[in-house]
Amino acid sequence: MRDLAIAAVLLWFVLSAFRKPWIGILGWTWVSIMNPHALSWQLQSLPVAAAVGGSTLVGLFVAKTGKEFFLCRENATLMLFMLWMTIVLPFSMIFDASYPLWNRVMKIDLMILVAMVLLHSKRHLILLVWTLVISIGFYGVKGGLFTLATGGSYRVWGPTNTYIEGNNEVALAIVVTIPLMRFLQMQMKNRKAQLIMSGCMISMALAALGSHSRGALLAILAMGTVLWWRGKNRLVGAIGFIVVGLALLSIMPAEWWNRMDTIKDYKEDDSAMGRINAWWMAFNLAKSNFFGGGFHIYEAGIFAAYAPNPNDVHAAHSIYFMVLGELGFIGLGIFLTLFLYTWGTAGKAFKEGRKQPQTQWVSDLGGMIQVSLVGFAVGGAFLSLSYWDLPYNLMILAVGASRWLNGKRWLTEPDGPLVPLPAFIADRFRRRPVPRL
Q1: Which residue ranges does the record assign to the O-antigen ligase-related domain (predicted)?
Q2: pLDDT at 169 exceeding the cut of 70
Q3: How many CB atoms are located within 10 Å of the residue 243 CB?
């Protein structure tokens, strides 16, 4: 039954994408971020992403409306990044292993560019936020309940054979998604819906802690600091964060505290020292090779040539050193520029959107995108998620919201419900004031 339900939804996305390719992009995002077919028994081996992505690309060229081709600093930088990765590929130290990874990254980045063309209305953007929240929230809320039920004695892990399979990776995905949940909560008019979303966010935070990821803890602290600083009532906000934080931390067992304690004594932790050894390897490799080493450099022979400890072979475990080792200093520069541009665009939306009620949602979204980027920047310093889709979806949201604002779309777009609801359900979602931190 579960397989049939998932297959039916996927088939709907494939068929809808031919006529309305923006629906296909949402389907692609759902498949790429959540990997729902991995939860089934029969669909795991099928080319689900290729089917949804292929139908979306066909719809992009067949559909007569709904497309907005444009050039901005973000998509131009992303295309430059793709070009640089392609230039680097022939110089890869291990070409046969690098090519499949390059191919995978190119597909992801291509669909990010397509999404920027197809998602341009308020409805499109908020539905994209919902897609991201549902995709990661499924694992985060479930992981939080699991942590609560087990007292944090077992780690929370992500879906197998995905970018976020590891406990550290799924923790970062959860952390980055929490601000997007807060954005949706700020748009809700019903008090019960707001309370449900609060419970989901608390469960997500508990799941991040339950992953036993030290990077996730640092990311949560960084995001919490930004949220507190931007709050209108910092005293109330501080009290709220402290109360919720203490309640969540009280659940965690002694082994969790012992692991977090290694942050200050990192020199005595083998895992931390292994990461630092990999960082030095990436730095030394980039110094010696203008193009970097390609997408596959974590081998004993390469560590023997560039690492301080040639016998301690680790993945980079850092978005920064991962890009540095694989794509060189130029690649790292382009990568950082891309997200600095995204930060700036989101910040401008945050400031400009507050000027009138019709655009307040743009301000809310821009502010929460920046909070998510803080989580990604801090947590990503300890994880190898440089090419994963979710951070690039933040760029889609920032650019889309900024273009909507600059184009004064509120004058032409109806401000109706994002998803049509039966009258007896819609009546329960009447406009009410939304509390803001």
Answers
A1: 201-336
A2: yes
A3: 10
Question: How high is the pLDDT of residue 228?
Answer: 81
Q: Which residue type does 227 have?
A: L
The set of residues, in sequence order, having a beta carbon less than 8 Å from that of 245 and lying 6+ positions away, is 224
Find the largest Cα–Cα distance for the chain. Answer: 68
Produce one character per residue of 349-368: b if its CB has 16 or more CB atoms within 10 Å, e if not.
bbebbeeeebbbbbbbbbbb
pLDDT value, residue 227: 81
Query: Cα 311 to chain center, whole Å?
Result: 33
Q: What pLDDT was estimated at residue 40?
A: 74
Task: Find how far residue 369's CA is from the centre of its chain.
Answer: 10
Residue spans per domain, the chain: 1-67, 72-264+316-426
322, 384 Cβ separation under 8 angstroms: yes
Report the Cα–Cα distance between both ends of the chain, in Å, rounded: 43
User: How many angstroms separate the Cα of 404 from the Cα of each of 52, 121, 132, 394?
Assistant: 26, 7, 20, 15
CB-CB contact of 158 with 139 (8 Å) = yes
What confidence tens digit (pLDDT) does each residue in 72-129 have? Answer: 999 999 999 999 999 999 999 999 999 999 999 999 999 999 999 999 999 999 999 9
Per residue in 239-276, pLDDT tens?
A: 887 888 888 888 888 888 887 877 665 555 567 788 88
Nearest to 84 by CA among 283, 318, 337: 337
DSSP state, 67?
Answer: -
Q: How far apart are CA 228 and CA 83, in angstroms?
A: 40
Torsion of CA 42, 44, 50, 56, to 10 degrees: 70
Distance CA 336, CA 88 (A): 18
262 by Cβ neighbours in 10 Å (0-12 / 13-18 / 19+) ranks as middle
Residue 59: φ, ψ to 5°: -60, -30
Average pLDDT, the chain: 87
Dihedral, 315, 321, 326, 329 alpha carbons, nearest 10: -170
How far is it, in rounded angstroms, from Cα 52 to Cα 7? 12
